[in-house]
Amino acid sequence: ETSVDEMIATTKRGLLVTRFDQILRISMPNQLYRGYTRDGLWLIENGKISKSVKNLVFTESVLFALNNLEQLGKPQRTFFPNVLLQYGSSQPVVVPPIKVKDFSFTALADAV
User: I want to staple 45 with a disulfide (CB 3.0 to 4.6 A). Which of 9, 32, 50, 89 is the partner?
Assistant: First the structure.
């Protein structure tokens, strides 16, 4: 179990995503999803948060992301509004913070 601070400290260059939003499944067999970052996206340089970054769109397979897992933190309870629209508005979930290499951000997000 790695803390988020340790994950940041061991990152040469990357992004800290504090929240994903409007996540929709694109392909069931590939577990491919598309969504947005929201409420805080930060550039990490040389183990330190250097500045905020504009929200991004991602298109990524859960299977690919888990295959590129570098670090895993202690699971924590959080809420994801509108994660999967068919399940309602606000779902409590327990997820660990994760550090993944080569995550696929595909575009800048306009106002979300």
Answer: 50
- State residue 73 phi and psi, 5-degree precision: -100, -175
Residue 23 and residue 43 in contact, taking contact as beta carbons nearer than 8 Å: no
DSSP 81-110: ETSSGGG-SEEEEEE--EEESS--EEEE--
Return all residues near 73 (Cβ < 8 A) that are at least 6 apart.
1, 2, 3, 4, 7, 96, 97, 98
Q: Which residues contact 56 (CB under 8 A, 6 or more apart)?
A: 15, 36, 37, 41, 105, 106, 107, 108, 109
Burial class for 60, CB neighbours closer than 10 Å (0-12, 13-18, 19+): buried
Query: What's the rounded Cα separation, in Å, for the pair 25 and 83?
Result: 10
Model-level pTM greater than 0.85? no
Token digits for 62? 């859960």
